[in-house]
Amino acid sequence: MNSTLFSVLAGFAPFIPFFFILLFLQRPKPCPDCGQQLPRFLSPLKKTKRHWIQGGCICTKCGCDVDTAGRKVTAGTALRLRPLATAIVMLTLLCGIGAVLVTFLLQR
Ligand SMILES: [Zn+2]
Asked: Which of 33, 42, 46, 108 is placed for a possible disulfide with 64 were both Cys, Cβ 3.0 to 4.6 Å?
């Protein structure tokens, strides 16, 4: 493995623990309608626009639409854009950290 590829991969290192913390330390919540444990992962093909922007999932047992806090979402609920703005800021910060690390490692 050459040093440039290693440096680029090392630049992405801060993302790995971030996603592990994000995905595996959250406890699955029960469905507000049927009590079934909600899935940790939702297929990108099944996600709605609201799921991509705000998060949340669909109960596999009853099909109830649930937000990230485990509350039922009714059909006419408006989108909240604050989670999207937060995600963009966090992604920008992580990309900045990655770019700085790559720059330091490439200067060797
Ligand atoms: Zn359910």
From this structure: 33
